[in-house]
Amino acid sequence: MNAMTGLIHFVGYQLRPDLDDAKIERVRSGFAGLVKAVPDSSLLAIGPNISHSSFAAGWDYAAIVGFDGTEALQAYIAHPLHKALGAETSDGFYRTCIVLDIKTGEGGAT
After folding, report:
1. Are 77 and 38 in contact (CB under 8 A)?
2. Which of 8, 11, 40, 108 is 20 to 30 A off residue 31, Cα-Cα?
3. What is the pLDDT of residues 43-74, one digit of tens each?
4. Taking all residues of the chain, what is their mean pLDDT, rounded to a whole number?
5. What is the Cα Rg of the chain in Å?
6. In what order do the strands lie in the sheet with 61-67?
7. DSSP secondary structure letters along 1-26
8. What is the DSSP letter of 68?
9. Where are the alpha helices (DSSP H) in 3-78?
10. In the chain, what percentage of residues exceed pLDDT 70?
């Protein structure tokens, strides 16, 4: 990811209490496979929230994907594997989900 013109795609989840490990692994694998399929993207982090901050309470799991630019993010969102991942997560993975797209470099973080 080029830090001068990049984007960060953050997806945070409040997980369902009855979630099993197999579902978590399918979601992790889904993110990894999607990033492999989309040029100019990289999986920066995925996993459980370990923050002790009161602001993080209830947010259990997150994925962070980096992109070299808006075209890569658009390709990621439009990719059939993204639609499959969305179906996997909306089918019993989370109670609540938040998605943030943040510019990095010029026009973003300084």
Report:
1. no
2. 108
3. 999 999 999 999 999 999 999 999 999 999 99
4. 92
5. 14
6. 41-48, 61-67, 7-15, 94-103
7. --TTT-EEEEEEEEE-TT--HHHHHH
8. S
9. 21-37, 70-78
10. 91
- Within-domain flag for 109: no
Host domain of residue 42: 7-103
Which tokens in the block code for residue 41? 């993207």
CA 51 to chain centre: 17
Say if residues 22 and 80 touch (Cβ distance below 8 Å).
Answer: no
Count of alpha carbons within 13 angstroms of residue 88, beta-carbon side: 17
Separation between Cα atoms, residue 45 and residue 51, nearest integer Å: 14
Domain count, the chain: 1
Residue 110 has pLDDT above 80, yes or no: no
Burial 44-82 (b: 16+ CB within 10 A, else e): eebeebeeeeeeeeebbbbbbbbbbeeebbebbeeeebb
Residue 92 belongs to a domain: yes
In a domain, 110, yes or no: no
15 in a structural domain = yes
Query: With the C-alpha atoms ordered 75, 42, 15, 27, is the resulting torsion angle positive or negative?
Result: positive
